[in-house]
Amino acid sequence: MSPPKMPDLSSPVKHKYVRLGYQYLVNNFLTLLLIPVLAYIALELFRMGPEEIINHLNSFNFNLLHILCSSFLIVFVSTVYFMSKPRTVYLVDYSCFKPPVTCRVPFATFMEHSRLNLIDSPKSVEFQMRILERSGLGEETCLPPAIHYIPPTPTMDAARSEAELVIFTAMDDLFKKTGLKPKDIDLLIVNCSLFSPTPSLSAMIINKYKLRSNIKSLNLSGMGCSASLISVDVARDLLQVHPNSNAVIVSTEIITPNYYQGKERAMLLPNCLFRMGAAAILLSNRRSDRWRAKYKLCHLVRTHKGAEDKSYYCVYQQEDDESHVGINLNKDLMAIAGEALKSNITTIGPLVLPASEQLLFLTSLIGRKIFNAKWKPYIPDFKMAFEHFCIHAGGRAVIDELQKSLQLSAEHVEASRMTLHRFGNTSSSSLWYELSYIEAKGKMKKGDRVWQIAFGSGFKCNSAVWKSNRTIKTPTGGPWSDCIDRYPVFIPEVVKL
């Protein structure tokens, strides 16, 4: 046996190790700079000895007036600092609506209803079948009772019944999980894009739970699938001016009055993707809630591209030639979403990325501007900033594009794909089903950072960053309780119907 050889120190070092060392150096630059300074001070103190140190201190002439003025200045500056510091917003807990099995719509049922409702338009039926085959949805997604009729019965009463079912179920579960009493709600924000009755949905909740007469309530409509993060942003701002307060957010989309019954392909697409869903979220700025809250809100960035006509019209509610109202999804939607995402991550990047990634990105940018415009731009590694990703489950193409753009692994987008498979596109509430999936899998540890990304009509891209306050135990209830053991599942590119 030949003796072991010394490693060849002149051989190339693997790039990943060089990068790790570089990242550590940049991210901890101030700490590394401080170490020799502290070491020098310690050596000087050790060399001087205790008597010389005392003599130096006695050499300073302190009088009572100087001490009082200095103390007052320190107290004043500290008071101003803490009063001007933004109040921390905590996510105490949340609840997601779990549809009853009676509302389930397997592929066979959906296609049978499509054939009967569009009996004189076989091409429209065939188009829906192709979309469904490639949608990434599973066999357990749900539609409201009114859509199960042939033809559907999208009446006002049916829409109100759906709203009451999804909202009250989520609210009741939130009260049970948190111990919150209705009279303790200080702020109420409801977002539902397409169903905006009078009285409003927020008034419906106030009436149901007999909330206080001085409650601050808001009802957001027309904000699209990113509305939940808009509600969080509004709640955050209100919690800055209302101390010691609780805010409840309800995010949902009511399907009943918005199920398109025409033949236009661009307007039939939402029928194939959108399903029932709702979430109720409890936010608080109370310091006493810090210990029981699941998450702390770190950052929230909103990007609106509505000034551009192509962005404004890419998701557009309109009538077709036969006066059927529906949502028209433009063929350029993905390209527009990509531009909105680019603007959003450019803003949020400096807030969340480690210094090493920011420096690499800046170097790449300067190199392209000064030396060679054809240099490949450096894409920051957001996996270094977050442990978990909740990408709006708007459709398979949305998740695919974001996975590719952000260079994410299959595990990073697992929550989004499985939520789309199990519940479909539940609009603004989908982010909370995804967060619930991560918790149900027992993956959420103390200190983990979560990035929620949502897109909406207008066109908008919104991001929220949360930090876990504690390791979250696998919940016994919730929307995933009866099926989490079966997930993740393999989702083929095409499911032949």
Topology:
Layout: H1 15-27, H2 29-58, H3 64-84, E1 90-96, H4 107-117, H5 122-133, H6 156-178, E2 187-192, H7 201-209, E3 216-220, H8 227-241, E4 246-252, H9 265-273, E5 278-284, E6 295-304, H10 309-312, E7 315-319, E8 325-329, H11 333-352, H12 355-370, E9 388-391, H13 396-405, H14 414-423, H15 430-440, E10 449-456, E11 460-468
Parallel strand pairs: 2-3, 2-4, 9-10
Antiparallel strand pairs: 1-5, 1-6, 4-5, 6-11, 7-8, 10-11
Helix pairs in contact: 4-5, 5-9, 6-7, 14-15
Summarize the structure in words.
The protein has 497 residues and is of the alpha/beta class. It has 15 helices and eleven strands. 43% of the residues lie in helices and 15% in strands. The strands form two sheets. Strands 3-2-4-5-1-6-11-10-9 form a nine-stranded mixed beta sheet, sandwiched between helices. It has a two-stranded antiparallel ribbon with strand order 7-8. A hairpin with a 5-residue loop joins strand 7 (315-319) and strand 8 (325-329). The model is unreliable at 1-18 (pLDDT under 50).
Q: Which terms would index this structure?
A:
15 helices, disordered N terminus, two-stranded antiparallel sheet, nine-stranded mixed beta sheet
